[in-house]
Amino acid sequence: MTAAGVQAQVLRFYGYFKESVVESNIENHRIRKVVLYYYLEDDSMHVAEPRQDNSGIPQVRAAAGRERGLPRAQQARPQS
User: Count of alpha carbons within 13 Å of 31, Cβ hemisphere only?
Assistant: First the structure.
């Protein structure tokens, strides 16, 4: 794929994590959904949590790495 073809392309992944709840006797944990965006143009990514109305939980925007790109993985070289 050419450099022009990679521009503005984003891979989107859906995931979740389990958060422990110690403040409540009703629930032991919560399942929180997240969306991971991986930008092919500069190898950066960020994690966003979709808003859930009336949840009372602040939504997370973690690892906002769009400002700083992640290093490209080194290609494995066979050892002689």
Answer: 3
Tell me how far apart the terminal alpha carbons of the chain are, to the nearest angstrom: 31
Query: Which residue is it, tokens 């494995």?
Result: 76
For the cut 60, the answer to whether the pLDDT of residue 21 exceeds it is yes
Retrieve residue 61's tokens: 């925007």
According to the 3-state scheme, what is the secondary structure of the chain? Answer: CCHHHHCCCEEEEEEEEEEECCCCCCCCEEEEEEEEEEECCCCEEEEECCCCCCCCCCCCEECCCCCCCCCCCCCCCCCC
Model pTM score? 0.59
CA gap 71, 44 in Å, rounded? 8
How far is Cα 29 from Cα 67, in angstroms, rounded to an integer? 33
d(CA 44, CA 72): 10
